[in-house]
Design brief:
UDP-glucose 4-epimerase activity; Rossmann fold; UDP-glucose 4-epimerase; UDP_G4E; carbohydrate metabolism; alpha/beta; NAD(P)-bd_dom_sf; binds UDP-4-deoxy-4-formamido-beta-L-arabinopyranose; two-stranded parallel ribbon; 7-stranded parallel sheet; about 350 residues; 13 strands
Length: about 350
């Protein structure tokens, strides 16, 4: 059974990927220091999988700690690197923490992996590297733009670091960069899902918490954009679809099929939806009337972005299967368990 190290494996996308890895016949091993996740996620994983998933409470930016884990866990076939802070607004307040954590953990991985003969890496990147695109949908060839937040800058820096390290002749590293769009929803079992610590930054958890009465109302950040109904457009991908893209990427690396030392894929549905469309879809999916009001724009928001998902489909054979409605229904089902 091929062993895959999943950093940040107790996180939102990480935990859903651990489930898909195990169910696809891999042996996932988690590294997570629970700085932005809860240990209860491990109970959810056990409930779904019927067995425990080994987890090391370790900061993967710490080289000696990472080496210790890799000495316990021999023959790691590949690494999926999720561990990172991801709140745009928070990154503006705490840039140093974001650079130290997000860039530092990648640098440590790239330094230590070759010491253990590990050559395969899937890196969690983000559509945020495109900034405010001139044309839509964005393809992998769409030029990246200067990021508008330290968080976005960490993702751009990490992509550049991967290219530079992979390009250095001495290194056998092969990497697949997955540029996520907007992950939403939860596993059908409702045993794992999005667990925002504190007030949610992201739209869907704020919607579900409003519907659950935890938040008084949703504020829609602006309806005066040049979009079909004036609200922002995003590409909302179900988190299990996103998780499955990682399985395909890992297998491609293990089969050494990657054409280049670094391959980049957009992972999105290929469709855009406005915030109001998401609200209306949620009301339909949940049968709940949502209390919302239009407020001022949120600084840094991109008016519209969604993926051209063609490359993942033609090269990886990957395509999303979950509708916006079903994604939101899964988010609501999960919220009701909290
Ligand atoms: C979506 C839309 C808001 C909350 C960010 C990161 C991205 C990724 C996902 C990590 C926007 C609107 C939101 C609210 C609202 N993060 N909104 N009221 O900003 O597209 O992406 O999170 O990987 O890298 O940039 O996601 O969910 O915050 O916002 O109107 O209370 O919902 O204006 O248009 P975003 P989001």
């Amino acid at each position: 059974m091929k062993k895959i190290l999943v950093t940040g494996g107790a996180g939102y996308i990480g935990s859903h990927t651990v489930v898909e890895l195990a169910q696809a016949g891999y042996e996932p091993v988690i590294i997570d220091n629970f700085s932005n996740s809860r240990e209860s996620v491990l109970d959810g994983l056990k409930a779904i999988l019927g067995h425990e998933v080994r987890c090391y409470d370790v900061n993967c930016a710490n080289a000696d700690a990472l080496r210790w884990v890799l000495k316990q866990e021999k023959d790691i076939a590949g690494v999926i690197h999720f561990a990172a802070f991801k709140a745009v607004g928070e990154s503006v307040q705490k840039p140093l923490a974001y650079f130290q954590n997000n860039v530092g953990s990648l640098l440590t991985l790239l330094q230590v992996m070759p010491e253990f003969g590990i050559e395969n890496l899937v890196f969690s990147s983000s559509c945020t590297v495109y900034g405010n695109p001139d044309a839509l949908p964005v393809t992998e060839a769409t030029p990246t733009k200067p990021a508008t937040s330290p968080y976005g800058r960490t993702k751009q820096m990490c992509e550049d670091i991967v290219h530079d390290v992979a390009g250095a002749s001495s290194n056998q590293l092969r990497t697949i960069l997955l540029r996520y769009f907007n992950p939403i929803g939860a596993h059908e079992s409702a045993k794992i899902g999005e667990l925002p610590l504190g007030t949610p930054n992201n739209l869907v958890p704020f919607i579900t918490q409003t519907a659950a009465g935890i938040r008084e109302k949703l504020t829609i950040f602006g309806n005066d954009y040049d979009t079909p109904d004036g609200t922002n457009v995003r590409d909302y991908i179900h988190v299990v679809d996103l998780a499955r893209a990682h399985i395909v990427a890992v297998q491609r690396l293990l089969d050494r099929k990657a054409a280049d030392t670094v391959e980049t894929f957009n992972v999105g549905t290929g469709h855009g939806n406005t915030v109001l469309e998401v609200v209306q879809a949620f009301e339909k999916a949940s049968g709940q009337q949502l209390n919302y009001a239009i407020g001022p724009r949120r600084p840094g928001d991109v008016p519209a972005i969604y993926a051209d998902a063609t490359k993942a489909e033609t090269v990886l054979g990957f395509k999303t299967t979950t509708s916006l409605l079903d994604s939101l229904a899964s988010a609501w089902k999960w919220q009701q368990t909290l």
